[in-house]
Design a protein that fits this description.
By secondary structure, this protein is mainly alpha-helical. Helix content is 75%, strand content 4%. Strands 4-5-7-6 form a 4-stranded mixed β-sheet, covered by helices on one side.
């Protein structure tokens, strides 16, 4: 009844239950919204990047969509037209250049002919004849009219004669040099024809240039409406394709933006409905702007609380009714038990009188008394049995043993008769052991004495034999035993000198090369000792040179002998040939296997490269964002650089100047933050395509300061919206940071007990004890 009074009044949670059911039916709306919003931001960023790559355009994406762009057919037509005009212009320019080169070549050949020898032409002959005819007319006029000759200058006779001579000389040269004249005439004719063709080609080139300029002008006018100075049609076709892709991307971004807005409005409506339901239940969220997931979790917790309260209310009511029924039945049973107890006490008082106990004695006391009586009688029976079966026989044996000890002491140790027989027994045993040891030692010493006596007898016999032999030898040598040591030393010296003499004579005989030793000694005596040293040096040098030459000859002989053995017709060459063929076959097989393995390695490397190009970009970009957040902006992003060996390495890029820092240049904390960023980015990339799985970490923030540890906890909190994160630590500081920087509904703390919790001073040791672990997830 008291618990029913403590329970809150009944509340209707059905509206909240229906709202949550509708929300669950829609699925993870917040997750779809975040994913779509992230995809929208990624698409907008990519569109901005692609827009910056679009040449000729500096405006926005919205301004790019309504541009009036020529269709593909017009671009293709202008491409064909401009290409045709350009080809015609190039062809005509090349023909004009060829004609100009031909004219220059002909002029050069004509100048060369004139330099080699002045070749007359028909024109020069005609000019000479004209001058001759003019002089002849002047002569005729002089003869006919009697005109006087000019006083100054050449006379008419001389001028006429000279003109006749020149005309005849030219006619003769034309006849003699008819071939050269023909060549020159042909060259001049060809030059004139080339000049005419050059003039025509120049006109055609100008027309082609005008046609190309007109086509280019019309091409530029096609793009006037778009406000662009176009490039070539081929480049503008690529530009138009990029513009179309950007327009399509803009359309897709608009649809995604509308979908994001729709999801956002739906989320806001769901949040408003959930807040209204909580208000009806007299509840209010801690944060009115809390995310939908947190608000949903709060509503689910509130619904569970209300439902648990109602279930508890019903349970308490059922328990109250049941206990009332049980209390009534228990009262009836109690009355029956009291009556039975009174009857039993009457019977019990009669039974306890035989044990001389109080009438109100407890049954356990009576039971203990009965057990004690049974044990007493059992001990009495056991004592009687031991006395009859064991104690009396043992006492008899002891008396017999004491009599035996006394008998032994009377015969072997009378001094032990007056002490108790146990001590006498011990002393007798000790004396027995010493007697046995003395007996064994005596036997060994007797054996040793026998061996020494045998050795002494043998030595005495040998000494007698040695004295007899020594006496015999002294008589033969004619000396006494006292002089033997000096005689022996002289004999040893004589043997040494004799051996040395024989060695010297052997060397001399070897040096004499067959000569008698007397001749060799005579020659040596005849030599001058002062010149022997120089001669010996020269001979030693000759010996060394001869030795070196001998070694070279021996080496050559050995090489030739080995070659001769190889060429002696044996099966070695055939075996070598067979081995060579086997090696060739093996090399062929190994080469094929090497080619297959090498090809497989290249294919695998290409597959790895494609996988890296496909997955490395998003992972590296996300890891760079996480690294910037974990380092509090100390690094801006991550990039791939190359070391001195040309191998790709990962570097961090500083903000601002873009300074690149390798892993070896980072601190331990930065390296740990880099590793965590890479792991989290890889996990997020995995979660994009697979179901979630728990992410378990154990004290990963040991090298982080408080600010970076708080940033890492926030990152893990964001990740916990997608999958469960289990964080183990025995540092209370990290628990406090998590409570401070993470929202309450997002994190749950669990303390794992350790053996020191049961000690008296366990509370003082919990802070730094490595066995105390705190889990917050």
């Amino acid at each position: 009844a008291e618990e029913l009074q403590r329970l809150p009044p009944p509340r209707d949670a059905s509206p909240l239950q229906r709202a949550l059911a509708r929300l669950h039916k829609q699925g993870d709306v917040a997750g779809r919204y975040e994913a779509l919003e992230k995809e929208l931001r990624r698409g907008q960023k990519q569109a901005e990047i692609d827009l910056k790559k679009l040449p000729l355009w500096k405006g926005s994406l919205e301004e790019l969509e309504p541009l009036s762009i020529p269709p593909e057919e017009i671009i293709a037509a202008f491409e064909e037209r401009l290409n045709g005009a350009g080809i015609d212009l190039q062809r005509l320019s090349e023909q004009r250049g060829e004609a100009s080169r031909r004219v220059s070549e002909l002029d050069q050949r004509l100048r060369q002919l004139d330099l080699e020898h002045d070749v007359p032409t028909e024109e020069s002959l005609s000019e000479a004849r004209r001058r001759r005819d003019a002089c002849w007319r002047d002569v005729r006029a002089l003869l006919r009219d009697g005109a006087r000759q000019p006083e100054d200058g050449e006379s008419l006779e001389a001028a006429f004669e000279r003109s006749v001579v020149e005309a005849d000389a030219l006619a003769d040269r034309l006849r003699r040099e008819a071939e050269r004249v023909g060549v020159k005439s042909q060259l001049m004719a060809e030059r004139d024809a080339q000049r005419d063709a050059l003039a025509e080609l120049s006109t055609a080139v100008e027309a082609a240039e005008a046609k190309l300029a007109e086509a280019e002008d019309q091409w530029r006018r096609q793009w006037t409406a778009a406000g662009l100075a176009p490039l070539s049609p081929r480049e503008m076709r690529s530009w138009r394709r990029m513009q179309a892709e950007l327009v399509a991307a803009a359309e897709s971004l608009r649809r995604q933006s509308e979908e994001v807005a729709g999801l956002r409005s739906g989320i806001d409506a769901c949040r408003e409905e959930l807040r209204d339901c909580l208000a009806k239940l007299a509840m209010r969220p801690e944060d009115d702007e809390a995310p939908l997931a947190d608000l949903t979790a709060m509503c689910e917790a509130a619904l569970k609380t209300v439902q648990d309260t109602e279930l508890r209310r019903e349970q308490v009511q059922r328990d109250a009714a049941r206990q009332e029924r049980e209390a009534k039945a228990a009262g009836d049973a109690l009355e029956q038990a009291r009556q039975a107890l009174d009857a039993w006490r009457t019977r019990w008082g009669g039974a306890t009188e035989r044990l001389r106990l109080q009438h109100d004695s407890d049954p356990t006391v009576a039971s203990a008394v009965l057990d004690a009586i049974d044990a007493l009688f059992a001990k009495i029976r056991e004592a009687e049995s031991l006395t009859a079966e064991r104690i009396e026989p043992i006492a008899a044996e002891a008396r017999l043993f004491a009599q035996n000890v006394k008998t032994v002491c009377e015969g072997a140790a009378p001094d032990l008769l007056n002490i108790p027989y146990p001590k006498a027994t011990t002393e007798l045993h000790h004396r027995l052991e010493k007697a046995r040891q003395a007996r064994d030692r005596l036997a060994e010493l007797q054996k040793l004495c026998d061996r020494e006596r045998e050795r002494k007898a043998a030595a005495d016999e040998s000494l007698i034999q040695a004295d007899a032999e020594l006496e015999l030898l002294c008589r033969e040598a004619g000396s006494s035993p006292d002089q033997l040591l000096a005689v022996e030393q002289k004999a040893q010296r004589q043997r040494e000198l004799q051996s040395r003499l024989e060695e010297i004579e052997s060397r001399l005989r070897h040096e004499a090369a067959g000569k008698p030793l007397g001749d060799l000694v005579a020659e040596a005596m005849a030599e001058d000792a002062d010149h022997l040293s120089a001669a010996a040096g020269r001979l030693q040098q000759e010996i060394r040179e001869a030795t070196a030459e001998l070694e070279q000859v021996n080496q050559t002989i050995g090489e030739e002998s080995a070659e001769l053995k190889r060429m002696d017709g044996s099966a070695v060459a055939a075996a070598a040939q067979e081995e060579a063929e086997q090696l060739v076959a093996q090399l062929r097989d190994e080469s094929e296997r090497y080619v297959r393995l090498r090809l497989a390695a290249e294919v695998l490397q290409l597959a790895i490269q494609r996988h890296r190009e496909k997955n490395q970009g998003p992972v590296l970009q996300r890891a760079g964002d996480l690294f910037r957040e974990l380092t509090l902006g100390s690094f801006d992003r991550l990039a791939v650089d190359y070391n001195d060996a040309g191998e790709p390495v990962l570097v961090g890029v500083r903000p601002g100047g873009g300074q690149k820092v390798g892993v070896e240049g980072m601190s331990d904390g930065s390296c740990d933050q880099l590793y965590l960023a890479l792991r989290l980015a890889s996990l997020e990339h995995y979660l994009d395509r697979h179901p979630p799985l728990p992410f378990i970490v154990d004290d990963i923030l040991l090298t982080f300061d408080d600010d970076r540890a708080a940033a890492a906890l926030r990152v893990l909190g964001d990740l916990s919206r997608r999958t469960q994160v289990l964080f183990f630590t025995h540092h209370h500081r990290l628990v406090e940071l998590a409570k401070k920087h993470l929202p309450g509904p997002l994190v749950h703390f669990h303390r794992l007990p350790s053996p020191i919790d049961s000690t008296t001073n366990g509370e003082e040791q919990k802070e730094n004890d490595p066995h105390v672990r705190t889990l917050f997830a």
